[in-house]
Design a protein that fits this description.
The protein has 13 helices and 15 strands. It is α/β, with parallel strands linked by helices. Strand 3, helix 3 and strand 4 form a beta-alpha-beta unit. Helix 3 packs across helix 13. The relative contact order is 0.17. Bound molecules: glyoxylic acid and manganese (II) ion (MN) (2 copies). Glyoxylic acid binds next to loops. The site of glyoxylic acid (GLV) has 4 residues, from loops.
Length: 403
């Protein structure tokens, strides 16, 4: 097979005919279909497949569960996302194993191909849910109580999928068995296209976080309520969105985004009573993110107050700055022919794991530079080079001998 063939196998799963692209959310039918595809693809390679207590998928080459080199990514997507963010890393890991098996490689330590649950946080709002539960960064009861957009709790979704609720939480034994983690990922920018290079390694992930802003006003009739004296949270949100941009623009390389909004009750002829908006802030250090948040919230509070509305801010997640393991990254860059190390503004499970085990990333060029949108893409030859590169890295790190 090839990376292209493997991606083709899942290309019809989870297409979003309304938004375009793919919507593959944790334990919804499309994501469940991808889980089952993962199982059969891995089994076809002779790997033994298991679901861990946090809904993450593992496919093992080798009997031992100690000293493993793990590689993979995630299968879920953002709403209306691209075909590559997540699946490319999983597919490339499977393909790299296929390459090594075809040449008769005998790894001297186990290789695990994995797919982490809900990396995007698109259903339950917690990015890197599966990896953060595994390492113990999210309290199980906190995760289980999360609610999706239709009111289903994570606990209910878990039970409906036939998963065991009592196993959710830290998994120190599994973590202790992993010596290194590698995540191959489509690049989410134009750095490699600009450099005319197919591959790079990751150097860092910007610090980032998500906050829910709840703006409460007064619901009323759109026709009978004079313009004066309204307390319209949609108007307050408009000025809040401008505040997010103004503050981010004042700070070098900072990012501030409101990409998700929920209006209550959401009627054309109704002045809304409440708006919830999700704020995503990213910067080059944890303290810069915090300072940007403080400045943003202060300005939003002023503007929301001027509209007669009230503001509540709730932190949903915070992901500290990640600096990937330098020796491992340098070793991989060398194995890939001396490719550059580039930073990213996108969060990854590799970033979570990097606080516990040496972790590294390989980026594959994206000609559009677009991600989290249907236009996300990667050239076929670059994807194949990525899988070959990952195979070379696994060969090096598992120190086996060809037959
Ligand atoms: C995940 O892709 C993120 O960066 O939010
Ligand atoms: Mn993503
Ligand atoms: Mn991703």
């Amino acid at each position: 097979m090839s990376v292209r063939d493997r991606l083709a196998e899942i290309s019809a799963i989870g297409r979003d005919n309304v938004r375009g692209g793919y919507s593959r959310h944790l334990l919804e039918p499309a994501e469940v279909a991808l889980r089952s595809w993962f199982g059969s693809s891995a089994e076809a390679l002779g790997l033994s497949v298991e679901v861990d207590g946090n809904g993450n998928l593992w496919a093992w080459w080798g009997e031992s569960r100690q000293g493993a080199v793990a590689t993979g990514s995630h299968l879920d997507s953002v709403p209306g996302g691209g075909a590559f963010d997540g699946p490319l890393g999983v597919v490339s890991a499977l393909e790299a194993v296929a390459i090594l098996k075809a040449e008769g490689w005998r790894p001297t330590r186990p290789i695990a191909v994995c797919a982490f649950a809900e990396e995007e946080g698109s259903r339950f709002g917690m990015p890197c849910l599966g990896s953060r539960l595994m390492v113990g960064e999210i309290a199980p009861e906190h995760a289980l109580a999360r609610v999706d957009r239709t009111g289903v709790t994570l606990e209910e979704a878990w039970r409906q999928a036939g998963l065991e609720v009592s196993t959710i939480g830290p998994d120190p034994d599994r973590l202790a068995g992993i010596d290194m983690f590698l995540e191959l990922h489509v690049e989410q920018g134009l750095d490699l296209e600009d450099r005319d290079l197919p591959l790079a390694v990751g150097s860092a992930i910007m610090a980032h976080g998500r906050w829910r802003l709840s703006i409460v006003g007064e619901g009323n009739h759109a026709g009978t309520t004079p313009m004066q004296g309204r307390r319209d949270p949609v108007v307050a949100l408009s000025s809040a969105a401008l505040a997010v941009r103004e503050i981010a623009l004042e700070r070098p390389a900072a990012r501030g985004t409101i990409g998700r909004i929920s209006v209550t009750p959401n009627g054309t002829n109704v002045i809304a009573s409440r708006v919830d908006a999700w704020l995503d802030i990213r910067a080059h250090s944890d303290s810069e993110v915090r300072a940007q948040l403080d400045a943003t919230v202060a300005l939003i509070e002023k503007r929301v107050g001027a509209e007669g509305c009230a503001l509540q801010v709730h932190e949903e997640s915070f992901s500290p700055l990640v600096l990937f393991d330098e020796p491992l990254t340098a070793r991989i860059a060398g194995l890939l022919g001396g490719v550059p190390a580039i930073p990213t503004g996108a969060g990854h499970d590799a970033g979570v794991l990097s606080a516990y085990v040496p972790a590294a990333m390989i980026f594959v060029r994206n000609p559009t530079g677009v991600s989290h949108a249907p236009e996300e893409t990667a050239r076929e030859e670059d994807c194949e080079a990525g899988a070959q590169g990952l195979a070379a890295v696994l060969r090096d790190l598992t120190g086996g001998a060809s037959r």
